[in-house]
Amino acid sequence: MVSSRTILDVHILQTVPPSNLNRDDTGSPKSAVYGGIRRARVSSQAWKRATRRAFDGLLDPAELGVRTKKVAELLAARITALGVGLEEAAAWQAAADTITAATGAKVAPPARKAKGDGDDPAPESQYLMFLSSRQLDALAALAAEGLKDSGGLKEFFKGKENKARAREAANTRHSVDIALFGRMVADASDINVDAAAQVAHAISVHAVEIESDYYTAVDDQRNEDEPGAGMIGTVDFNSATLYRYAAVDVDRLRANLGDGLRADEPAAEPVRRAVEAFVEAFVTSIPTGKINTFANQTLPDAVVVKLRSARPVSFAGAFEEAVQAGGDGLTGGHVAGACAALAAYVPEVERAFGAVTEDSWVLRVGERTSALAGLGAEVGLDALVGAVGAAVAKRLAGSAG
Q1: 111-124 pLDDT, tens digit each
Q2: What are the phi and psi torsion angles at 7 (to 5°)?
Q3: Which residues, 6 or more positions from 214, have their beta carbon under 8 angstroms from its beta carbon?
Q4: Is 69:268 a contact under the CB 8 Å cutoff?
Q5: What's the rounded Cα separation, in Å, for the pair 255 and 114?
């Protein structure tokens, strides 16, 4: 018998006006060929970062982490706050020794600033380190304990038991963002975290051409007899109706999160909070590339969320044949045609593969999205977030029983 899983699928149609959400190395909006047609593309990394940033307004800081090379500075501040009586440089070194013990990563002053060139810089890790707030607190407490050892911190961590404690402190009580998006530690693969969330590259449902904006800027102090602009330049942009998709393996998320933040809460509560935060953040966030230039502050036209008991299912295949503007016979745009294509494709896939879901919700805006009404219970954002969280908690409680 195949064990039942809990998989959350989020499908979004979102129209973005002239914008440059995610640039390539030439400064041009990213693109991809799909169905033989050039499409607009926004990388998964760009939308994952936007989602992570949105967590700041949705979750307690204690449930979040930080990804940085400057992890020694963060840890040193926590060590100092414990009243160990260290000067700044000594606190940095204590933090560096603790991070190396916990992760195996080398932490040293950056090479770009030579010793003696002004104030000595804080040590940095060689690559981005992703640690939760609670992991940093645990490592700071361990460092403070080690500093009281007669042999000093380096000697303290030479002991196998203490080194194991440091490794454990860095590998338990993961934050929501680490549990969702994973973590790779190059020097200690045993504390890597497999991501519970998968995020697809967003692609336009139609063909897209890149356009270019030629602009000039006037020098405010220019005299009237001075011709020309202070500067000239170009900015590439496009506009698109995007299909966005993400999936969350709720069982993996529960395993990654481990024990909850509060001992008195139900076991499923941390997972429910994480799922609700992910749904709201992924739905409402937008990458900030050139956002001040284009003010492309849109929200989705439609959101379809499904809870499955088997593998994730993307519906990108609905748009393998590019949607034609006005192809629905009702409008000159792409939203209505995209909704019609998605509404026709989803039931066919679910029927053919037996992938029909019991829990399905639709959030939609306006008549252009009316074709999607039959794909699930119609809800607003708050109701969607609450319903998904409650359904996940119910399933987890059932599996625990």
Answers
A1: 655 555 556 788 99
A2: -120, 130
A3: 232, 233, 234
A4: no
A5: 44
